[in-house]
UniProtKB/TrEMBL annotation:
Domain spans labelled Rieske: 417-502
Domain of life: Bacteria
Pfam families xrefs: DAO, Rieske
SUPFAM superfamilies: FAD/NAD(P)-binding domain, ISP domain
PANTHER family assigned: RIESKE 2FE-2S IRON-SULFUR PROTEIN YHFW-RELATED (PTHR13847:SF274), SARCOSINE DEHYDROGENASE-RELATED (PTHR13847)
Keywords on record: 2Fe-2S, Disulfide bond, Iron, Iron-sulfur, Metal-binding
Name by which UniProt lists this protein: FAD-dependent oxidoreductase
Record-annotated membrane-spanning stretches: none
Length: 502
């Protein structure tokens, strides 16, 4: 078991998987990305009668969707209050409807396809860990009511397994096993001229009539429509990188004794603590604890993040052990609404489903329905809400902040002095070292071998930072991640880092 593997993957047989794209192909719809955004979109397009090819760089559900907490909730911590503040009552009501309909769509899919994915209806609670968080809980309750959700507040905290200052509760939400769910959906795609390909990274997309996509080993797929569902949008032409922050967070799974909490829950303020119960097929009881989020590529990616979550788990539950810890990231649009629809204002054949800001079980499902409707020529219910090309002026301050942050890393980081010589890199750690070609990122593995790569992100050239928690080189600008040998772990970068000799 990899030290940082989620319980959803560690507890499952890897399965035979899907083949790599081995020859050129023509389909109606090509979908890039095998997470919940891509798999759901591909399946819906197949149901519409299209010939579909889904291309995934690694394994299906190997991205954020296999590393998630997998709560399907319309309450979503304090998201409704934030959307109401930025966009008003009508938009928050549409967002809540899109989320609720997505939950019912997943429920119907699980039922109709008899998917064994531990689907379970539970309340969801946003709680105030202390008096200072009461205001956020209150605003969330008001926004939820404005959106038409039947939330309760009186004594809502009583359902929590620990004391809280107050809470807002929404019943009949759900949680599930994301990897089993997605593998079942993906298994329904092949056949009738539809395909799923794994280990098939897309490096280039020509948006035309038809479109052509090219994989890293030079194979191509010709398609009438292409959907980019790569978590952080892969292609720069939509300028998503100017308005989307990549945010990383951490999870631990604690094996516990006694009763499991009868609710999902998340704190309304910092430090974020998200919990959900899980009973595995062998009858073991687990509580997942998540939180400790920060911008990807910041120096905050430290192993101590896990220790803070483990401490919380041990304080609140009767913990036997904590064998699973993992981390993942998601894109957060500056105006706090996801993107589902045409890639640019001029795109006719290129679509995006992304920007799910840590609520992708519902948002990606809602987005997949919008994109599939557009491709099939139907008028989607939430096209305006999720329009990737909306002009949301109310988000201007966040936009400016995001740009300042990126600018600082593009320019300022180049001035950071080199820190070490190769001999000074300890086992299990990484340093920035100076070589003839400039700065090099050097990681010494536990066997003593040095792995050296260029430190310029292959997306737009920002200087990468070492992530000690995950042993990766992470980009502070738009969240691309690379392993110590330069292989892309997360986009928008598509090309690996050049390796360097030391
Ligand atoms: C810690 C954490 C907890 C979360 N908990 C919840 C929760 O409880 N409820 C909830 O609703 N949401 C939650 N989320 C959010 C949710 O997990 C995500 O929004 C969702 O999984 C995103 O799905 P996706 O398909 O867009 O991205 P991903 O699942 O990341 O899928 C994208 C896929 O694209 C592939 N890809 C990338 N580039 C290429 C390429 N060039 N060629 C081919 N393939 C490519 C990747 O390998 C990846 O498999 C959480 C997020 C985090 C970070
Ligand atoms: S992810 Fe854009 S420069 Fe690195």
């Amino acid at each position: 078991m990899s030290p940082n593997e989620p319980i959803w993957i560690a507890g499952e047989e890897p399965g035979a998987g899907f083949p790599r794209l081995a020859e050129d192909l023509t389909v109606d719809v090509a979908v890039i990305g095998g997470g919940i955004s891509g798999v759901t979109t591909a399946l819906l397009c197949k149901q519409d009668g299209a010939r579909v090819a889904l291309l995934e760089r690694g394994r299906v559900a190997g991205g954020a969707s296999g590393f998630t907490t997998a709560k399907a909730s319309a309450l979503q911590q304090t998201k409704l209050a934030e959307i109401r503040r930025l966009h008003g009552d009508e938009t928050v009501a549409a967002y809540a409807r899109a989320s609720s309909e997505a939950i019912e769509w997943i429920a119907a899919t699980v039922r109709e396809r008899a998917i064994d994915c531990a689907w379970e209806r539970l309340p969801d609670i946003t709680y105030a860990a202390d008096a200072e968080q009461l205001d956020a809980v209150q605003r969330t309750a008001e926004a939820a009511r404005a959106a038409g959700l039947p939330v309760t507040t009186n004594g809502a905290e009583a359902a929590l397994p620990f004391a809280a200052a107050g809470a807002v509760r929404l019943d009949e939400q759900a949680q599930f096993h994301p990897v089993r769910y997605l593998r079942a959906l993906a298994a329904a795609i092949p056949g009738e001229e539809c395909h799923v390909f794994e280990q098939s990274a897309v490096v280039h997309v020509d948006d035309g009539s038809p479109c052509t996509i090219t994989t890293d080993d030079g194979r191509s797929v010709t398609a009438g429509a292409v959907v980019v569902a790569t978590n952080y949008p892969l292609l720069d032409r939509g300028l998503f990188f100017t308005r989307t922050e990549a945010v990383r967070s951490y999870l631990v799974a604690a094996r516990v004794r006694g009763e499991l909490p009868a609710t999902m829950a998340i704190s309304a303020g910092e430090p974020t603590r998200s919990i959900r119960p899980y009973s595995d097929a062998g009858g073991e009881r687990w509580v997942l604890v998540g939180g400790e989020g920060h911008a990807t590529g910041s120096g905050d990616a430290q192993p101590q993040r896990y220790e803070a979550l483990e401490r919380f788990a041990r304080e609140q539950f009767d913990v036997i052990d904590i064998p699973h810890r993992w981390s993942t990231q998601d894109g957060s649009p500056v105006d706090r609404l996801p993107y589902a629809g045409p890639y640019t204002p001029h795109s006719r054949h290129l679509f995006v489903n992304a920007g799910h800001q840590k609520w992708g079980m519902t948002n990606a499902t809602a987005g997949a329905r919008v994109v599939a409707d557009l491709i099939a020529g139907r008028t989607p219910a939430f096209a305006e809400l999720l329009d990737p090309n909306r002009l949301t002026l109310s988000a201007a301050p966040q936009f400016a902040k995001a740009q300042l942050h990126v600018g600082a890393h593009l320019i300022g980081d180049r001035l950071t002095p080199a820190e070490a010589s190769p001999d000074e890199v300890p086992a299990g750690e990484a340093r920035v070292v100076r070589s003839g070609l400039g700065k090099v990122g050097a990681f010494r593995d536990d066997d003593g071998t040095l792995h050296a790569v260029s430190l310029r992100c292959t997306h737009l050239g920002c200087l990468l930072h070492w992530n000690g928690a995950e042993r990766s080189w992470d980009c502070p600008c738009h969240g691309s991640r690379f392993d110590p040998d330069g292989t892309v772990l997360a986009g928008p970068a598509a090309e690996p880092l050049p390796r360097r000799e030391l």
